[in-house]
Amino acid sequence: MVTTSEIAVEAQIEELADKPPLMSRIRDFGRRQPLGSVGLIIVLVMIFASVFATVLTPYDPEANAFEFMLTPPNFDYLMGTDQFGRDILTRIIYGARTALFVGFTAAFIGATVGLVLGVASAFFGGKFDLIFQRVMDVFMAFPLIILALAVVSIFGTGVQNVIIAITIPFIPRCARVVRSSALAIREIPYIDAARANGFSNSRIIMRHMVPNVMAPFLIMITAFVGQAILLEASLSYLGLGVQEPIPAWGLMLQGGAEEYVESAPWVAIWPGIAISLAVFGFNLFGDAVRDTLDPKLRSQ
Amino acid sequence: MKFPSLKFAVPLAAGLALSFTMADTAQAQKIKRGGILNFVVGSKIPSYDGHIEGTFGMIHPIRPFYSTLIRVNPDNPQSPTDFICDLCEGGVPKGDDGFTKYVFKIRKNVKFHDGTPLTADDITATYKKIIFPPEGIASARKAFFKMVDSVESTGKYEVTFKLKFPSGSFIPSVAMPFNFVYSKKDLDEKGYTWHKTNINGTGAFRFVQHQPGSFVEGKRYENYHIKGKPYLDGFKAISAPKMALRLQAIRGDRAAIEFRGFPPKARDDLVKALGDKITVQESDWNCALYVTPNQRRKPFDDARVRKALSLALDRWGGSKYLSKIAIVKTVGGVVFPNHPLAATREELLKLTGYGTDVAANRKEAKRLLKEAGAENLKMVFNNRGVDQPYKVVGTWLIDQWKQIGVEAEQQVNPSPVFYAKLRKKSDFDVSIDFNCQSVVNPIADVTKFLGSAGNNYGGYKDEVLEKIYDRLLRAGTEKEQRVIMREFETRAISDQVHMIPTLWWYKINPHRSYVKGWKIAPSHYLNQALDQVWLDK
What we know:
The complex is a heterodimer.
Chain A lengths: L3 H15 L3 H11 L1 H18 L1 H4 L31 H37 L1 H15 L3 H12 L3 H28 L2 H8 L4 H9 L4 H24 L11 H12 L5 H28 L1 H5 L1
Chain B lengths: L4 H24 L7 E6 L14 H7 L7 E3 L10 E3 L15 E5 L14 H12 L16 E8 L2 E6 L6 H5 L9 H7 L14 E7 L3 E6 L13 E6 L3 H9 L5 E2 L5 H11 L3 E16 L9 H9 L3 H11 L2 E3 L14 H5 L8 H14 L6 E7 L2 H16 L4 E7 L1 H11 L4 E7 L5 H4 L17 H12 L3 H18 L4 E13 L2 E2 L17 E2 L2
Parallel strand pairs in B: 1-9, 1-10, 13-14, 13-15
Antiparallel strand pairs in B: 2-3, 4-6, 5-6, 7-8, 8-9, 11-15, 11-16, 12-16, 17-18
């Protein structure tokens, strides 16, 4: 006689046997999503650079070395130096750390809070949903950069405040998308069953609804990281974000673009390229993730 | 190539050589009349009233509409003691009754732009408004005239100032370019706030129009009291808040000059692009950047910590390199470097943090921090959100302090927030600070270091320093003043280090070579009457 547990084990073994090996899946992803793969590579390079920054460059990103100020690119300084004699490549590498830290933190917190609020709004419905969505409408009426500027003008400059300034505009955007998915899930019988079993609202939201809206959540996160990097660079460029001497790409543009774009163009060009590449990479990767996770697009 | 010195040296040398050559040639050239001078201004006009404002954003476009009683000699603006009559005649009075009485003879041929003739009463009414303003009426420079006991008309064309005690800072204070002479009739009939939004002066130019955020326009005043002047038909002061815009305006000949000053790189770019079409004038600037520790907070109430922060700075090295990227250059003490009362290099070297052995200074700094129990000090450095020179010098300061183990987090704030932190909230550990003045008048200028001064934000009381200043104020001779000034300087920035000097500013004015007759002054507030300016085209 075959027991239920044996059947389950056999089913798991079959499932594992059906799954292609990792390399094969990566190759498959690369074949299906060539642009997404390029994005992934850019993202991975950024992560690698930021993790191993101390090993990758011999220079201190913050220490002034005036005797080498505004040196054009050469073998010692592959991307040249800025007006304080700091190696630009080093600051680009360390800048990736700042960009990723701000980007991931703001995107993760913003999307997570948006996820919980969006699901709760869909779950409770009624007046709560109506009022909550109108509040979200107010926030979404402002362009990202305007809202971030308003927040930073209240809290002030600095890395932490920049993260807050970027996180707040993300919350309604994620909440709105997640809510629409959660509305459909709310009507599925297992939610009613959970209610009938007397589960608390928080348990139903966190254990039964949230896991089922992970696909749009992950897509939002990947999209948010690119946007957050761009926002951080914009705020820093405007002098309202990260402050000297912390290496940050937008700040590097702000310090050099106006004064040195003509006589020392490398001061402005490299951070500009870094920002463009990072945003490009995250957007391509985000699109690929969306295409992969969306059943309709996947079937096409 | 490690250091592109030639890139800086060649244009600088060319610019300087050009400026001297052009200056000499201008004297020899025949002055041409006519034309409109277009210049760019990087700051807004808060109001037209010189008695309450203190910004070049007001002085540059509005000063040409007004005259002052005396002024800095426009042909010798570098001299801190060369003053000439503007609305007075017969020379600047030397002082009677033991330098406590100054009698000014007033010109008889002067008319305001509305046709009202100028008399001594207008001068008296103006200075009473500045020195003894009625309650509720602001006067930004009232404190400069502490020595004045009375000002009265002693004839239709004679004004007498009586002083409580003799003071070398009286005449320089009278010569300040903000002391616009207003009509008594306007003050009596239209009130003391009328000049905030209206203009009626006796200056070389008449007000035509002001398009806020765009430009101010003036045209030649035919009845100007200095015969034959002004040479220009008019001027247009174009508002351009962004430096890149001002630079491009000069490059594209949409404007001929910017009177505040550009950083060295901008000068080099203009010279490189326009060659001899650009003339460069450079000067020490009566502006200095300081760091003010907040002595209301620990550990900045400890002189050893403040000394350590000063000892960390390599001022001589900073001067060498920062002068290439920022509008700062000269190492100095509390007095404008070119003034007879200023410390010599030998005297500076004796002060805390001015020694040339940087390694020894920093070793001593670390020792002092350890002794004060402030090793691994972390602090927030409040800076102003203006690139030149604040943010550039701020980045340098943080690097310098890092050398002695002090970690400073820079908090850059827009000007209103920055000032609020300094003035209202006193919410800072250490802050960038500055002392910018117009006429070089060291005895008045150094009041900034007194804990009791309205523009001092350190939160300290130093009775010893106050007493030294009192002696300085009453010192009769320059020799005596010099000795007391050293005592004051040593106490303020070396023994107590109430404020930490960084570098004095350096003024660089690249302008179209066809602009003649304007000579650079040690302040961006000075020499802006424009009556001696002409266009060689």
